[in-house]
Amino acid sequence: MNRAVIKFSSEDCGICHKMSFYDQKVVEELGLQFIDVKMQDTATYRKYRKILLAQYPDKEGMGWPTYLICDEPESDEFKILGEVKGGHPKGEFRSRLQKVLASTN
User: CA 4, 26, 18: angle at the middle one, nearest 5?
Assistant: First the structure.
């Protein structure tokens, strides 16, 4: 099974930039794939837009950044397991991801 964390962010978001110093490292330490989707990167955004819109049909209520924990993100059979929204210190980010993962087992 391919389980990933997809980060939806914007290049002009300060919190997104701050999180980028450790978010990928934390995700990979938890044994997950990390997919970085910047809204300005139209090709990558187009590829994962269906996952974002499944969670936020009109993008209302999204955080910056929004991390969606997802099974099989490359397929049409993707399943969203949970999310972490907004900026968090490294340890809290890790524990929020772990909480989502624990609830899916």
Answer: 105
CB 15 within 8 A of CB 87: yes
Q: Along the 105 residues of the chain, how does pLDDT read in single tens digits?
A: 799 999 999 999 999 999 999 999 999 999 999 999 999 999 999 999 999 999 999 988 899 999 999 999 999 899 999 999 999 999 999 999 999 999 986
Whole-structure pTM value: 0.95
Q: Where are the domains of the chain?
A: 3-103
Nearest Cα to Cα of residue 19 among 74, 61, 66? 66
CATH of span 3-103: 3.40.30.10
Sign of CA pseudo-dihedral 71, 31, 48, 11: positive
Q: Phi/psi at 30 (nearest 5 deg)?
A: -85, 5
